[in-house]
Amino acid sequence: MKQTMNEQQLQQRVDELPSEIKPKRDLWQGIERAIELKAQQQQKPEAGNSKTRVINFQPLALAASVVLAVIVFFNYPDAQQPVPEQLTAVEMIEQQYLQEKQNMLVSFGKPDLTKLPNNIRQQFDEIQSARASLLEALEDDPQNPDLLNLLKWTQNQELSLLEQLYSPKWQTI
Amino acid sequence: MTLQGQQTVIDAKQLFASKQEQEWIELAQNGDRQAFQQLYQLHIGRVYALCVRMIADREQAEDVAQEVFVQVWLKLDKFRGDSKFSTWLHSVATNTALSHLRKQKNWLQRVFSLEEAANSEPVINDHPELSDLDKTILRLPEKARLVFVLFAVEGYRHEEIANMLDMAVGSSKSHYHRAKKLLQEWL
Fold first, then answer.
1. What is the mean pLDDT of chain B?
2. With an 8 Å Cβ cutoff, are B45 and A22 in contact?
3. Where are the domains of chain A?
4. Residues of A in contact with B185 (CB under 8 A)
5. Interface predicted TM-score (ipTM) of this complex, two decimals
6. Measured between alpha carbons, how far is A136 from A121 in angstroms, rounded to an integer?
7. Where do the domains of chain B lie?
8. Class in CATH terms, B140-187
9. Surface of B (19-38) touching A: CB under 8 A
10. Around Cβ B123, how many Cβ atoms within 10 Å?
11. Most buried by CB count within 10 Å: which residue of B43, B45, B69, B92?
């Protein structure tokens, strides 16, 4: 019968554990690239690679949409030419989400989402179904802030799922 | 050389290393990446050891170790020298690793069932660089592993661990006890 190690022996083994372990690959290059990217983002928020743009697109796009909406709203009465139909909040949020999703898929090399494993496909279907239900509810109550927030949250879930599936890791930045 | 002489040489070397590190910290705080690279070279071994023991996956541990240094670079101006740099770096590493595990768990729970996620075992054969004890630690259930690594290897107190892992102090002690028993059985 195998004799189990006593507490003192275990403690001794723990004390002998190496305090340092070297990773298999050199991690510095990835760190340096990430630092470089962060510096570029801070200096020129509009610059950066496609991945960074995709990740940070949402707040920028939202801010831009708000500014655009305000400009359209204040200029509308003076406009001489026909003004394009004003977007509703739902349309703006949807437009922004579709744009962001499109950018994301392009940056990931347009992966074929129909070839995902069933369990992941099911997750996408559930999110899409939730989004469809929310859009339907918003048709009756288009300004409901809770529904709008839920819609944004649902869209973010899908984008986050996409990012986790296809986003390159640090070393490939 | 006498024992006293040897000790003097060791003390002098430590003093020099500490001054050198302080210089690199100050240079890095002023944006010097080469100095930051020196800090990386000095500490990557300890940071990676912590990450791989906590995360139990080599590739993920490497990614998290990278993230730790990116975070440190971004937060470097907040380091005022109230504690040792290595202590501060270690707390950034611990928090980054825990945050990674939480995200990972949420992700696994969303895609797979909780049960499947909890039963997923680390690929221990993928760690030729680890000692037998390390490989055995990686086989521990996640909570038991985290508590054991933080308490027995990293020297945190149960109160600190309970706070970090959002659990009662008693639970931390109980996970530690369980980890010890499992390790004693397996080794």
1. 86
2. yes
3. 37-77+86-172
4. 4
5. 0.83
6. 22
7. 3-127, 140-187
8. mainly alpha
9. 33, 36-37
10. 12
11. B69
